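The following block was generated as part of the benchmark described in Methods. Ligand: heme C.
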Amino acid sequence: MLLATAVLVSAAWLAPVKADASAQAVKLPETRFASTVSGHGFDAPPGFADAVPARNQAHPEAKAVGEQVCTACHAKENDNFAHTAHALGMQVALAANPATATCEACHGPGSVHAANPTAKGSIIAFTHEGGTPVANQTESCLGCHSGGPRDVWLGSIHQRNDLSCSDCHNPMQKFSAEGLTAKQSVSETCATCHKDIRQQFNRRSHMPLPEGQISCVDCHNPHGTLNATLLKTDTVNETCYQCHAEKRGPFLFEHAPVRESCLNCHQVHGSNQHALLVAPVPMLCQQCHSHTRHPNDLQTELSLGNGMTPDERLMGRGCITCHAQVHGSNHPSGPRLHK
Ligand code: HEC
Ligand code: HEC
Ligand code: HEC
Ligand code: HEC
Ligand code: HEC
Ligand code: HEC
Ligand code: HEC
Ligand code: HEC
Ligand code: HEC
Ligand code: HEC
């Protein structure tokens, strides 16, 4: 595991960064957490005690005003904010050192905004209309949260599609039990954009995501990975083995398509077939086993269940009535995946 991590981290630096991504390159002010920030480790984020105002690119001349100035006008927002993980930590830090940034650690120095609150861009606003470029928004959060799961945020499909941290997180209020997600659960947060995927989980066969036992982030890292589909592991099969460890084998007799990819036969987000299958048995098997011999010579009217000479290969559980070990067999006489 450690080895895999090291490979991932070093490969992150080699990964090509798309041209449009360079526009969002994160340049942290040198004074910020110089002592504690680690470029790409798995350390906890630097504590709130180190917090300084974020950099508002639109107003480099702005000065910090302190949270009492903000809360004088934003009492309602402050009430909602008070219960969140950030607020609790920041209040402790502020009590110890009155110079610690709180609101301004995310929103940037407030003097320009306090003097003219309606001027767009006067404060770092975490919306797509607020006048703050998305790159500046994410830079504010990444000042404390770079590295670890967000090692490859830059260049990831979500970053390239101009998502901001605040498309999924709302730190101003406790909407979710954990993770400060913008909706009550991870899956509903993703479903604000990926409705089609969420709907597939309503199909007859699905893993227990609507039931709350697993979530999108058990398999995906929304902050970016080195593969196209944001999988947390290098391959599809590794993802499945996290929970279905018995399918990893090793087997005395392998079934080639299982080793290649579980998705040869399964639909991960939901299916109306039995056991998340992409097609019903025997058609599923016959997509590949179509040579002339036992597997194939049976799709005739006569051999159907109500035909003249019903064939057991089409009845009951079809092929898997006999070839029950479709994922691989460890039985000395199991080369045909019977046992
Ligand atoms: C004098 C009152 C006042 C003070 C002081 C003030 N704000 Fe505001 N703020 C406002 C008003 C009014 C708006 C709404 C502006 C609008 O709708 O155009 C606003 C809007 C905002 C927004 C949303 C901006 C957007 O475009 O969506 C943020 C974020 C914000 N304030 C943060 C802060 C922070 C942080 C501080 C302290 C550094 C602060 N404000 C101090 C009055 C104030
Ligand atoms: C951890 C970073 C962070 C801190 C600290 C923080 N904010 Fe925010 N704030 C955000 C984000 C992100 C949003 C956008 C939320 C959304 O998606 O609507 C936001 C939105 C706002 C808005 C716009 C209205 C709203 O509620 O969406 C105001 C006003 C605001 N913050 C004021 C404050 C004040 C005042 C403080 C300090 C008491 C504060 N913020 C502390 C990140 C932060
Ligand atoms: C000043 C540093 C700092 C900034 C800036 C900051 N955070 Fe945090 N954040 C922290 C720390 C420290 C924690 C850990 C709190 C804990 O574990 O109790 C944290 C926790 C979190 C968590 C996890 C909360 C949980 O309940 O598990 C999320 C999500 C998060 N931050 C998102 C953001 C986003 C989005 C922004 C930008 C809008 C942001 N943070 C800005 C320091 C910061
Ligand atoms: C596409 C949605 C999405 C985007 C965009 C996103 N996050 Fe997250 N983030 C999540 C989800 C989902 C979790 C997991 C929450 C949970 O486990 O409850 C999470 C967890 C976190 C956590 C806590 C656990 C950890 O990974 O350390 C932090 C901190 C965090 N995100 C920061 C950020 C920052 C900073 C950005 C912007 C650069 C960002 N996120 C962008 C969806 C997103
Ligand atoms: C604000 C909208 C938005 C939210 C919220 C969002 N995504 Fe995305 N996501 C996108 C966009 C846009 C793309 C790129 C376009 C596409 O291929 O659909 C994308 C792409 C992806 C991809 C890669 C698709 C591919 O074809 O390679 C995955 C996987 C994904 N998102 C997972 C998630 C997960 C998991 C969450 C929740 C933690 C989430 N997304 C939340 C907008 C969003
Ligand atoms: C059990 C693991 C798992 C869970 C849970 C999961 N996914 Fe996936 N997801 C995958 C795999 C595997 C792929 C296909 C990867 C490939 O083809 O390389 C995928 C592909 C995707 C894609 C891109 C391809 C497509 O079908 O459009 C998106 C977008 C996506 N997932 C979003 C989500 C969202 C949103 C959730 C939560 C509602 C979710 N996933 C839950 C494993 C999972
Ligand atoms: C986070 C854990 C997790 C991961 C990762 C995971 N699964 Fe599952 N899977 C489950 C759970 C939980 C069930 C339900 C088991 C039960 O009901 O006994 C399940 C059930 C299934 C079923 C049976 C569905 C049915 O209707 O009988 C199939 C098939 C399946 N998973 C395939 C996959 C594949 C393929 C992957 C990889 C893309 C995968 N799983 C990854 C947790 C996971
Ligand atoms: C050649 C097609 C095929 C491939 C490839 C395949 N499966 Fe299956 N899988 C099936 C069939 C058929 C069933 C239904 C078996 C039954 O009903 O007895 C099934 C059932 C399952 C089940 C539920 C019953 C059980 O055995 O626990 C899980 C979980 C599962 N598969 C996981 C996986 C995983 C993980 C992979 C990848 C390592 C994978 N499958 C690859 C055909 C396949
Ligand atoms: C994606 C293609 C694919 C699918 C779908 C598929 N198989 Fe296979 N199967 C193969 C390949 C490739 C081999 C290895 C053939 C070889 O070694 O000559 C194989 C081998 C076998 C063997 C061992 C045959 C031998 O000669 O040793 C059996 C039995 C078998 N499959 C049954 C099934 C059954 C039952 C299903 C449906 C549940 C199924 N297969 C679905 C591709 C597939
Ligand atoms: C009634 C039990 C039974 C059913 C149902 C059945 N098979 Fe078989 N199958 C066997 C036996 C027994 C063998 C071994 C024959 C041998 O070793 O010569 C075999 C051999 C095979 C082989 C290896 C063929 C070869 O040329 O050596 C494949 C592939 C296969 N079956 C696929 C299928 C598929 C696909 C289905 C469903 C359409 C299916 N089987 C249904 C009993 C069955």
